[in-house]
Amino acid sequence: MWRDLFYLSTDNFMENYMTEGNAAKSITYFSIPLVLSSVFQQLYNLVDSIIVGNYVGEDALAAVGASYSITMVFISIAIGSGIGCAVVISQYYGAKMIHKMKTSIYTSIIAIAILSVFLACIGWIMSDFLLQIMKTPDNIFYDALSYLKIYFLGLTFMFLYNIITSIFNALGESKIPLYFLIFSSFLNILLDLIFVVKLQYGVVGVAIATLIAQGISAFLSITYLLFNLKKFKTEDEVAIDLGLNNKSAKVKTNKKENINKRKDSKDIKLFDFAILKNMNKIAIPSIFQQSFVYISIFLVQIIVNTFGSSIIAGYTIATKIDSITMIPLASFGNAVGTFTAQNIGAKKIERVKEGLKSSLIIITLMSLAIFAVLFIFGQNIIELFLNKSQSEDAIDFALKYLRIVSGFYIVKGFMNAYTGVLKGAGDIGVFVLSTMLNFLVRLIIVYVFANTIGVSVIYYGVPIGWFVGLLIGYIRYKSEKWKFKSIVK
Predict the structure, then answer these.
(1) Average pLDDT estimate for 380-408
(2) Less packed terminus of the chain by CB within 10 Å, N or C?
(3) How far apart are CA 96 and CA 16, in angstroms?
(4) Which helix (H) or strand (E) holds 261?
């Protein structure tokens, strides 16, 4: 009864629901802003590096780079926390339990704010120590330390911005985070030009620009979210607007009487420990998984470094191109996760299966198209980074890497889709297992066979890891045990 009344509320963003209409269209429309956001983020990072490298110098770029692996640890915590919050919020949204959805959102923001302040204090205190154990060279140590300390001052802004983005995505609104990302990126570049080029603050200017841009973006995005949350009305609020009594469903003219008859179970809370516990069940394994991914990439790089500068250059170019060309596949995996979460909440299991089938078809077509482009134009793209006369070995390695790895993009896309279902359903244990084994198998292959097979082990290990991840995700999906992992009971 009350779910039907909920649909009568014209103030709600019903167009963002992924529980109705054509499944393929819902997932595709949701994915497009995700793709654009990722591409824009890559381009922004490139421009940011160009400004630092050209107007401050090599040491400044190295100082920022030296801090990168440390900041990625904290970013992995932010991403993992966002996954945990998004799954819970999305399932409540799909179930149209708006009071629980709002409580989840408020709980997420408060918990993330507290966590980020704690981590910022730890990071600030340990900055010097962290750079020392990483054996940061003396000539860039002071700049790296200055950058890192200012970075930790703005850590709360980064965490809040990330969680707000996750919340919007959970509500099926992927366009709003794109708009804020575009604003934040242009603002950051403008501030870089002011603090770095005009005022010549060097690395400190880069850090200040990032802090200010993230701070303003976090404030605006939270303000926008909280303002629009008012448009999502609970079942009781819809009933009151329609003049209905909660018990008899008869028309009432006195709305105050209706308000007094609300049940405590429908109250919106600013913080709920039970909901936070559910979020942590997903967030903590996700943080662990994200951290493992970054550690694995670092360990693979160690082996790559043993093959010499040409292979390092080729690997760097190939992985940069690879990270961009795989964005559509990653975005579809995230879209499948949100689609699944909303429909799990709405108890529409068959629609989840319909969405997965549609996604697999689209992923197949995208994978073939990307492979064709890289196979035909791969060398032309690589030579945008490096001229063949400079290093033929680097270009040859990069080309082989791209052609072989992109030939298995369909496997990567399918793995993302199946694990996206698991993530959206709240079956986080198997989702994490699939991702970790994917990277673990790749690590084992690289470390065991690097001396016997040679440099080719680097690109052959990638699709083998994907096959393992896909196999685990597929087996779990076919078992249908993921259907019983819903947060919404």
Answers:
(1) 86
(2) C
(3) 12
(4) none
Q: What is the Cα–Cα distance from 402 to 285, expressed in whole angstroms?
A: 31
Rounded to whole angstroms, the Cα distance separating 83 from 103 reads: 17
Amino acid at 436: M
Q: Give exposure, 292-324, as e/b (b: 16+ Cβ within 10 Å).
A: bbebbeeebeebbeebeebbbbbbbbbbebbee
Residue type, 315: Y
Q: Supply the pTM of this predicted model.
A: 0.82
CA distance 105 to 258: 26
Residue with the bigger pLDDT between 230 and 100: it is 100
CB 3 within 8 A of CB 19: no
Of residues 249 and 339, more confidence is placed in 339
Residue 237 confidence (pLDDT) above 70 = no
Both structure tokens of 416: 């993302």
Residue 251 in 3-state DSSP? strand
Q: What is the mean pLDDT of residues 313-324?
A: 86
Q: Which of 97-101, 109-113, 153-157 has the lowest mean pLDDT?
A: 97-101
Residues 422, 426, 428, 434, Cα dihedral to 10°: 0
The residue among 106, 20, 37, 101 whose CA lies nearest residue 334 is: 37
Ranges 114-118, 229-233, 374-378: which has the least confidence: 229-233
- Terminal Cα distance for the chain, rounded: 18
Rounded to an integer, what distance in angstroms lies between the CA atom of residue 63 and that of residue 3?
Answer: 55
State the Cα–Cα distance between residues 254 and 234, nearest whole angstrom.
18
- 479's tokens: 């078992």
Would you say the C-alpha torsion 71, 77, 81, 87 has a positive or negative sign?
positive
Burial call 469-482: b when 16+ CB within 10 Å, e when fewer: bbbbbbebbeeeeb
Task: Write the DSSP string, 206-252.
Answer: HHHHHHHHHHHHHHHHHHHHHHHHTTS--HHHHHHHTTB-TTT--B-
Pick the closest to residue 127 from 101, 155, 149 (CA basis).
Answer: 149
Of the chain, the percentage scoring pLDDT greater than 90 comes to 50
Rounded-to-integer distance, Cα 241 and Cα 239, Å: 5
Q: Which pLDDT score is estimated for 236?
A: 63
* Per-residue pLDDT at 61: 74
